[in-house]
Design brief:
By secondary structure, the chain is an all-alpha fold. 78% of the residues lie in helices and 0% in strands. The protein has ten helices and no strands. It has helices at residues 3-27, 30-36, 41-45, 51-78, 82-106, 108-116, 122-147, 157-171, 173-176, 181-203. The protein is elongated. The relative contact order is 0.10.
């Protein structure tokens, strides 16, 4: 693609982002976006066939990167021994969430779009994707502990879904409430401590402490 085409695409995306943040997906007018971008309708359609495809271009790459971060953390965690997984559980989980927060604040407006345009269904789908990953990882961890001889209580799939949906929905309250990054990291570090305490009660053992100040 030519430099001119790249610049035009960037102009379209920046203009659309402004309109979507102001009016939401349903409320934003494609006609106004095209006009504000200084294009004809025909020129615009060479880049994006619909308003929805334009919104997808503003959000999907960033959600995919969050998945990649989380998948990488989980893959590294699963290479550890059963004892190593337990020893590093708090550390690995905290590192993964901090990397996600850093990325969110590097691309803050794109994640604001995710919540602002909740009518797209994309936010609900994203939370579902994170929850599904975490439930699968939790099941593998429990199975690994059982295979090593530990007595691990049974936990209903529905409860795992409730716990993790609540957690990831809470994490993205940092955007809903427009928190500064320092406050977000502090709050989520405390949320992790709260969640860890609950898991310790469910699993009947204590995870090793990791010193954290939310940084």
């Amino acid at each position: 693609m030519s430099v001119k085409a790249d610049a035009t695409r960037e102009n379209i995306l920046n203009t659309a982002k402004k309109h979507f943040l102001q009016d939401g997906l349903d409320g934003a007018s494609l006609r106004n976006i095209v006009k504000d971008a200084g294009l004809t309708t025909g020129a615009f359609y060479k880049y994006y066939p619909t308003k929805e495809s334009l919104y997808d271009a503003l959000v999907d790459p960033y959600l995919e990167h969050i998945y990649q971060i989380y998948d990488g953390i989980l893959a590294d965690f699963e290479t550890l021994s059963p004892q190593g997984q337990t020893d590093h559980m708090t550390e690995a989980s905290g590192d993964g969430i901090n990397r996600i927060i850093d990325y969110v604040y590097e691309h803050y407006d794109h994640f604001r779009l995710l919540l602002k345009c909740g009518d797209s269904g994309k936010y609900a789908g994203f939370i579902h994707g994170m929850v599904a990953r975490e439930i699968a990882s939790t099941r593998k961890y429990m199975d690994t502990l059982r295979q090593s001889g530990m007595a691990v209580p049974a936990v209903e799939e529905s409860l795992l879904h409730m716990i993790n949906t609540g957690f990831f929905s809470s994490v993205f309250q940092i955007i809903e409430h427009d928190m500064d990054k320092e406050t977000a990291k502090k709050n989520i570090a405390q949320l992790k401590e709260f969640q860890t305490g609950g898991w310790e009660r469910l699993m009947n053992f204590k995870f090793p402490d990791v010193q954290s100040n939310g940084e």
